[in-house]
Amino acid sequence: MTFPAASDVEFGAEDHALTVTELGYGAMSIAGAYGAIAEQDSQTLLHDLYDRGITFLDTANVYGDGESELRLGEFLKGRRYDVTIATKVGIVKGGGPGKRRARGDAAYIREQIDGSLKRLGTDYVDLYYLHRVDPEVPIEESAGALGELVEAGKVRTIGLSEATAEEIRRAHAVHPVTAVQSEWSVFARDVETHVLGACRELGIGFVAYSPVGRGLITDRFDFDAVAENDVRRTFPWFSSENLPANRQLVQRVGEIGQGAGLSTGATAMAWLYAKARQLGVNLSVIPGTRYIEHWDELATGLEKALDDDAVSALDALAEQVRGDRSFDPNWVSGGREGLLPRA
């Protein structure tokens, strides 16, 4: 069986450059965010991805209270130097989504890296993100602390997640930022207004998470099957008042993709790569799933290009989406840039 070939993409420059696959894997799913997955099943999934040439793996210390990092650490045994690992610091768990807080002070960042390294079973990570910008701590302090970890050899490059364009520029002035990670999809477009321009200007790579809207923009989404503890139940797109209208938009995505022979999810993936080329952004996309067959379906978005008419038709859907992409607009870059909320 053959699989779509993921090419390499370069983030950053010179001493702060990082080469990653343009298609990676978001490992929040192996910590149970969207439903339980057994340890052995998670290892099988990671091995299947590796066999497909996927070597860019993304996690965070907060995913499953470290469980995602632990499972990746088990997988990394014997192949650490063949895999690019990104993890994150900066979210302190409370009672779940909407009750968490950002923490980005230097002491906390220095403390947390050692726990991540231990769980991952390595003495360095390739990319270390500030998971959320702490409103109580200047971004310069957070970036400086991340930069100190580079000097200490614990981190190769640094990144920011859900940072505004202004925050990106301020952090980059303290220490070169190699990558920015934020949500970007057919339905979530706010990063195109300011953030992607800042990345292009500064030579920073962009990593798109939730490229299919946490499974919404696929042919298989069934809200009735979503568990009570599934994080999606806290997001406005999935509320009872918004979901019916958003499902109609999902159907439209599928109709547009049919002309290219793509499923709904693969259409959303193909659209992202088309937009990145259009906007001049170096992009890696990190879908997350518990099932390799779902991942393979999304990966077909690498195989077939959408024509300009299809891209334009998909572009027009975002303004019709009901609800914000986050439970708290201030939790994401678009909210702090005044681009959210949306009715």
TrEMBL record:
InterPro entries for the chain: Aldo-Keto_reductase, NAD(P)_OxRdtase_dom_sf, NADP_OxRdtase_dom
Name of protein: Aldo/keto reductase
Pfam families found in the cross-reference section: Aldo_ket_red
Residue ranges annotated for the NADP-dependent oxidoreductase domain, each copy included: 22-318
Native organism taxonomy: Bacteria, Bacillati, Actinomycetota, Actinomycetes, Micrococcales
Statement: the UniProt record of this protein carries the keyword Flavoprotein: no
Species of the source: Nesterenkonia flava
Entry annotated with the keyword Oxidoreductase: yes
Keyword entries, A-Z: Oxidoreductase
Domain of life: Bacteria
